[in-house]
Amino acid sequence: MSETTAPAAERELGLEGVGCERRRKEDARFIQGKGNYVDDIKLAGTVFGDFVRSPCAHGRIKSIDAEKAKALPGVLAVLTAEDLKPLNLHWMPTLAGDVQAVLADGKVHFQNQEVAFVIAEDRYICADAIQLVEVDYEELPVIVDPKVAMAPDAPVIREDVEGKDTVGQGPRKHANHIFTWEVGDKAATDEAFAGADVTAREEITYQRVHPAPLETCGCVASMDAVSGQLTVYGTFQAPHVVRTVVSLIAGLPEHKIRIIAPDIGGGFGNKVGPYPGYVCAIVGTIVLGRPVKWVESRLDNISTTSFARDYHMTGEIAADRDGKIKALRVQVLADHGAFNTHAQPSKWPAGMFSIVTGSYDIPAAHVVVDGVYTNKAPGGVAYRCSFRVTEASYLIERMIDVLASKLKMDPAELRLKNFIQPSQFPYNSVLGWEYDSGDYPTALNKVMEAVDYRGLRKEQAEKRAKGELMGIGIATFTEIVGAGPSRNCDILGIGMFDSCEIRIHPTGTAIARFGTKSTGQGHETTYAQIIASEIGIPSDDITIEEGDTDTAPYGLGTYGSRSTPVAGAAAAQAARKIRAKAQKIAAHMLEVGEDDLEWEVDRFRVKGLPEKMATMKEIAMAAYGNVPAGMEHGLESVDYYDPPNFTFPFGAYICVVDVDRFTGEVAVRRFYALDDCGTRINPMIIEGQIHGGLTEALAIAMGQELLFDDIGNVLGASFLDYFMPTAVETPHWETDFTVTPSPHHPIGAKGVGESPNVGGVSALSNAVIDAFAHLGVTHMPMPHTPWRVWQKANELGIDR
Amino acid sequence: MIPANFDYHRPASVDEAVGLIEQYGDDGAILAGGHSLIPMMKLRFATPGHLIDLKALDELRGIEDTGADIRIGAMTTQAELRASAVAAEACPILAETVDVIADPQVRNMGTLGGNVANGDPGNDMPAVMMALGAIYVLRGPGGERETPANGFYKGIFDTERAANELLVAIRVPKPPAGHGYAYKKLKRKVGDYATAAAAVILALEGGACSHAAIALTNVGPTALNAGDAAKSLIGTSVDGEAQARAAELAMEICDPVSDMHGPVEYRRNMAGVMTYRAIAEALGRAKGG
Ligand SMILES: Cc1cc2nc3c(=O)[nH]c(=O)nc-3n(C[C@H](O)[C@H](O)[C@H](O)COP(=O)(O)OP(=O)(O)OC[C@H]3O[C@@H](n4cnc5c(N)ncnc54)[C@H](O)[C@@H]3O)c2cc1C
Q: Which of A91, A213, A224, B65 is a Cys-bridge partner for A266, taking CB atoms 3.0 to 4.6 Å apart?
């Protein structure tokens, strides 16, 4: 059968549209080593820049002597803060309203802070020259603990903002204090606690971690001295925002700046913020007139560019005797390091942390977050999560277990008792969110059945009787993603819309461009599927392009699981505009009224006369030759989509672990993850995202941590120590799903990339702690490394 | 992560190599597989002016059965050792140890000589060589000499080898036929150095332990010979009680540092657990299990 006569169902499958397990377009080049990453960009005449970094975590710079370095043959320049001052680029604004030193201005605030930027003919000379720059420091007392930072007589970390009553996010109450953010009804919460049958309290720290994408951050900046055109290739999750920021802080006209994000080897939030390396490379190319490349080493990446978390939380929960939750109270000390470079677009200093009531119908809640400075690298970012959602989710999922143990109730039962019910959607949470859709009981019941939860509890009881440790961890999380409605979110006043531009070629193939930027999510594959289903052009006939600000429509980039909720919606909307125009052209071609036509997969048919039809292919050609009078030629559209609300993906995870009480090793025996991300565009990509996110969750829960010693030395900032699991350490992941579409998204999709990190950490941590629950343990600090788990066993005397 | 400048030499004979080592003294470094030395150079913790690469010296390669011993050339890679039928037959603990060192890429490059000459307490082979009673064959300007693995290690990166000597081979006396063995290593992930590890060789005669050797990895400034622990097994049936006592004695000689693997107490205790488990496994093997 020809493509024009095949049955509709067959033609629909041929499109490889929404729901198809289409193979990833981008993998052909990645698995052949033919990706094009920043360090693969080789422009003629490129020179290399890298940093002299501070060995001490807090100190005054007494002198910088760069003469020996400058004298080394092949060294072109050594930039210090003094050199950047005339350009007013020695400090730069952060996305959180603070400022960050580009090159240390008289003082260093954390170990490995950027002190000078050396530019040389090649990276080898550059490395030698860095060692020749002599910097003299006067060391100052170091603060690595946020609690110590708030002590009355604590040394002042940020002298540059000393005496200022705000650093962009409201009043400060201490020289090392950044902001206080309060949400919820304190009085109602206090009252609920006062009258509650049962209350529980726990101190829960989410350790400092780093996203550690496999490709580190870097850029190549190239100024064309003749045209005045600046081109910057870089690891940018949000290329357009970078262009605007560069224009604003460097004072260059925006039309003379072109930002190109080539293939990016993972971002996980690490590549959202602007870094000193970008600024110095740009200054370098302007000064030298040659392209300047800067690429971080692993050590630089883990120890200086944005970390995540470092949230020190106190949770309190109140309930009645039979387990109905009455109120939640949360206090957070948020360690932001030396500068508040919290890279997040919401209007709130703690992002979406107020999603902390989770999947539960909690009538009263009160949250206070205090941000503080310490002598540690600045941040933080959302490590594969929507801004501070992981912290919030971890807090509530832990507190549910803490309450369950206090009530001597099964944690699954307690969850089922307190879930927001399907009939309550759209649900208004007490902390101000409107959850779009969800069905939590169905999800949890499905998972409990799949793993035989009752059977597992029985086995656990038997094991405990024999002195063996087995843990079962549950997480029933709700995310808030898809930043975001412009009333809630912006960057530098630019709304958090995103965009899609589609052009249909005369022969019926297409190109679509987006304001987002894949860092591995597979946009080239999934965006084409959305468009294919909307306008009946096969996915394979649609080229997807992102990352070049000269060609892509303005967008806010990829993070916070926003690509599908926002740019994916723009794709559907832009496609619908195409279809609307196509319908007019089809009516003209078939000499009928527009309303006489009906859409079928890839064509319009005349109602009642199904043999009369115009296919999208035919319409495309007509758009360039045979358009109705008064209509413009061409078949193109663009859509800027400002989402009416966030989306709220959710999931139910159960994790089963066996703990070796002699060594503290934890083996994940089973991990069952059910995710509901609304409409599923490509189930295979979803599964890949879940596998990757769960593996990161395993890394965080079981090993990742940036530790510091008393004098601020960062410990374990290489893959020797910083836990990056391989296939050997990764358990088998079982995945499952339910589908509860988002009612406000054009195709009902919610976004999925980050759910497994958010839910996975809680499930794993809950499982480890549950292994000790019968011994009276309610909490253990993450990460659950063998030595920490062993310490608990040792303390309980069960390690012999 | 870029080494400082150095000159590169590729001697064609052992004598030429020894001459170069003598000539450059402290400014020279012997390069074998490079998988300990080059990472140190990239961090500029090591900045030798001259690298003397042993790659071309085929005479330092290979595994030979010499009757009472097996003789392993210093430049034999860990992967070659793993694949050797001679080693597997006489001394299966070698292959068991290679399997928990780093990853296949490292094992394809890294040599046995480099692993034992390096002097890093994190290396796995020194403890195994101690448990096996191996002899190191060194060649200097004055000729060859032999020195036992037990006593070779003096401190972190400090060994009996003189700066102008080359390790040419390792002589491993064959353990008694039918011996039991085990190398138990606790690590955080594949490719990691040991939190603690224990090598055990033992033999039984008429149900009683007639020979025992125990050595520990990464719980002190060097690999440690747990001689008292081993002695405590002799004459016993190596029952649970004897295993636990030996593990206690092994723990007593540990002097680990606190690092990202865990605090001192943890690592000391893990040396005990690894010893206990290695003895149990070795016993099972000695009994033909
Ligand atoms: C990621 C990674 C993980 C690792 N994990 C482990 C592990 O778990 N366990 C483990 O044991 N090792 C581990 N290693 C180290 C690895 O086994 C090395 O290969 C080994 O330690 C050194 O052998 P080499 O041949 O590479 O020696 P090189 O690195 O070339 O040399 C090491 C040192 O020994 C000296 N030397 C080498 N040969 C001679 C000789 N013939 N005579 C005198 N001096 C000599 C050199 O001068 C140098 O000082 C790891 C390495 C890496 C990169």
A: A213
Alpha carbon distance A347, A484 (integer Å): 11
Looking at the DSSP bridge assignments, the partners of residue A545 are A513
Q: What is the CATH number of domain A38-140+216-264+271-304?
A: 3.90.1170.50
Give, for B211, the enclosing helix (H) or strand (E): strand B208-217
Closest residue of B to A705, CA-based? B260
The answer to which of A342-346, A644-648, B30-34 has the lowest mean pLDDT is A342-346
Going B101 to B107 to B112 to B113, the CA torsion angle's sign is negative
B117 CA from centroid of ligand 1 (Å): 8
Assigned fold of A388-481+645-795: Aldehyde Oxidoreductase; domain 4 (3.30.365)
Q: Which two tokens stand for residue B200?
A: 């055990």
Count how many residues are written for chain B: 289
Ligand 1 centroid distance, CA of B80 (Å):
15
Q: Has residue A683 got a pLDDT over 70?
A: yes
Residue type, B172: V
The domain B180-286 having CATH identifier 3.30.390.50: the answer here is: yes
pLDDT in tens, B205-215: 999 999 999 99
- At residue A681, the pLDDT reads 97
Which pLDDT value is given to residue A260? 98
- Selected catalytic residue, list A384, A415, A513, A680: A384
DSSP 8-state secondary structure symbol assigned to residue A95: T
Report whether residue B193 contacts ligand 1, using a CB cutoff of 6 Å.
yes
By Cβ distance, the residue of A664, A716, A790 closest to B260 is: A716
Q: Residues of B near A (CB-CB distance < 8 A)?
A: 1-2, 4-5, 44, 186, 188-193, 195, 260-263, 265-266, 269-270, 273
**Mean pLDDT in chain A?**
96
Judging contacts by C-beta atoms under 8 Å, the chain A residues touching residue B261 are 787
Tell me what pLDDT residue A492 has.
83
**Domain residue extents for chain B:** 7-52, 60-173, 180-286
CATH of B7-52, one of 3.30.43.10, 3.40.50.1000, 3.30.1380.10, 3.30.870.10: 3.30.43.10
Positions of chain B with pLDDT under 70: 289
CATH number of B60-173: 3.30.465.10
Q: What's the CA gap between B99 and A366, in Å, rounded?
A: 54
Please, which residues have CB within 8 angstroms of residue B42's CB and are 6 or more apart in sequence? B1, B2, B3
List Cβ neighbours of B15 (8 Å cut-off, separation of 6 or more): none
Instruction: For residue A729, list chain B residues with Cβ-Cβ distance below 8 A.
Output: 189-190
What is the token pair recorded at A372?
Answer: 């503080």
* Predicted confidence (pLDDT) at residue A423 exceeds the cutoff of 60: yes
- Closest chain B CA to residue A666: B188
For residue B37, the CA-to-ligand 1 centroid distance in Å is 6
Does A293 have pLDDT greater than 70?
yes
A662 with B273: Cβ contact below 8 A: yes
Q: Are A790 and A799 a contacting pair, CB within 8 Å?
A: yes
